[in-house]
Specification:
Helices cover 18% and strands 30% of the residues. With 138 residues, it is of the alpha/beta class. Strands 1-3-2 form a 3-stranded mixed β-sheet, with helices on one face. A 3-stranded mixed β-sheet has the order 4-6-5, with no helix packed on it. The protein is globular and about 40 Å long.
Amino acid sequence: MAIQLDHLIVPSRDPIARAKSLAGLLDVPWQESQGPFTPVYVNEALTIDFADRDQFEHHHYCFRVSDAQFDAILGRIEAAGIAYRSTPRGADDRTINRRLGGKNLYWEDADRHLWEILTVSYARPQSPQLTATGPTPR
């Protein structure tokens, strides 16, 4: 079995509101409480657990989605009046970045976490071939 990311814990000052918002944007189910977490069920293999915290660093979370999913999520972002931008830093320009022939955009939530959706991954264009003992140089 390939290694898969099972879940992430996202610190939040209002985990129920953040989970509900993200689940609504992604159009996926969520649950108000599962133990100390408020989970968002992104897909069959990934859960994002929002956890109540007073202090935390701000993080960046990215989802690779299809073109149709991108357009649907963008529509929900715009309908919710959420500012977004084409770059990870800078002004909210309400522009889609089309690098690498795909689409991507960024938005911040009320906890100042940076969320991203993209259709073409720029993180792995020349990734090393993986083996059981680690990366193999190409």
